[in-house]
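We treat protein structure as text, and this decision shapes the records that our systems exchange. The remainder of this section carries one protein's record, kept here as part of the documentation:
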Amino acid sequence: MIRIVFNAGTFYRGAPPRRAGGVWDTAGNRKTEIVRRVKELFSQSESVQLQYAEAVKQVEALTPSVLSKAFRGELVPQDPNDEPAGEMLERMLAHRTSPPK
């Protein structure tokens, strides 16, 4: 069933528009609100894209830094009782070249 509502010389097919703030909400007002909201969402999207790009830059800079610290032994506290890496490599090489038992 289609209702036709007459109000101040204007008629609407179907349900009358919602009333907001004492003024009948027209299609133009709804369109304006949709455009405003879409612009707001695009703005938020641009902000997220900029934050993502900055995060990618930071990660790209962080990876070499972490690797560098790892090779210098600066990522975790060092145990003074650990054998030096050079000695460990020599021991491993000697073990590889020794005849099997």
Observations:
- The two ends are 96 Å apart (CA to CA).
- The chain is about 60% helix and 10% strand.
- The CA atoms of residues 41 and 47 lie 10 Å apart.
- The longest strand covers residues 4-7.
